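Exam prep: given the inputs below (a chain plus nicotinamide-adenine-dinucleotide), describe the expected output before reading on.
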Amino acid sequence: MKKNILVTGGAGFIGSHVVRRFVNRYPDYHIINLDALTYAGNLANLSDLEASDNYTFRKCDITNISEVETLFKEFKIHSVIHLAAESHVDRSITNPIDFVMTNVVGTVVLLNAFKQYGEAVEGRFYHVSTDEVYGTLGDEGKFTESTPYDPNSPYSASKASSDHFVRAYHETYKLPVVISNCSNNYGSHQFPEKLIPLMIHNIKNNKPLPVYGKGENVRDWLWVEDHASAIDVIFHKGRLGETYNIGGNNEWKNLDLVHKLCEIMDRKLGRSEGKSAELITFVTDRAGHDFRYAIDASKLETELGWSPSVAFDQGFEKTIDWYLENEVWLEGVTSGAYQSYYSNHYDHR
Ligand code: NAD
Ligand code: TYD
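Solution:
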């Protein structure tokens, strides 16, 4: 009998990498991908898995209690890997309620369903979260698992709240849970509202490259496949009730990263040196913009033996190549809903 593993948000950026990894590596699992297919969910990300006999997709909104419970009754769910979320900070500033609904209410709906109908004796509820719950850093220091929560954006506040509910279900109901908090991911299939695919798309189309503020904010970037491998390790070996930080040890100032991208794109597009960088445009800073994120991932490295597999130069180049080779994907998701979002968000800046 295959174990039914419910992955939520599997049609999104990170979720699609996790689903593909688990379907291909674990034939004894039946992976059920539950996703509402919001603007960020794209089933084309997983078209290669449609014929797999250990994969099922279900369109479902995690805030819909009766639909979620029906699914838990239909499949005896052994474990949950919960990635479904509203994930973009700028959207959370414009519309915080969606973030409370999906990230907070939706997480509690899933916890409750798992508690009532899941195999909470043997299985586990794995909650995928972000380092943004810890707030912002100055020039020095890194987030550890014991850094106090101090979220600044509606997105990070909603993720912090969901983390607290997961912990509360562990303390109160002894639900077997594990949480990870990861830094910024980059890689294929990321919706081009996030920095890297947005800039690739704009460079290609000779559009302005909107850098917030002075571009001095710092992010730690991890290749999405390495996040998926960390999720695999933590799902199988992480201690219940624990939190694990995941990071790339790879900090970049936004402006430096955009310059690096411009240099690579000049080379790949056969443009003269410095051409793409002419598109850089400084725009009004994001409200409440966290200055710096950096992760101390030593607990995950020493306890569970995980480390990133790919150097940034290599992962970044692969990522750029993927967007250039998958023009159809990029153009597809940048039409329609995305375009109106784009003009609502950037036209006045
Ligand atoms: P994403 O926005 O690309 O994908 C989110 C997915 O969730 C989409 O497929 C969407 O359709 C689905 N979804 C949204 N609302 C839903 C709902 N109400 N019901 C069911 N499905 C719904 O996000 P991502 O970047 O892949 O992030 C996945 C998870 O990882 C999130 O929990 C996010 O907080 C976390 N995370 C992301 C990053 C990052 O750099 N992207 C870093 C650390 C943690
Ligand atoms: P983003 O990809 O939105 O991730 P997060 O806000 O979760 O870190 O942004 C990464 C960094 O890039 C962040 O400091 C904001 C900045 N940024 C820009 O300067 N311009 C942009 O158009 C976007 C989307 C982000």
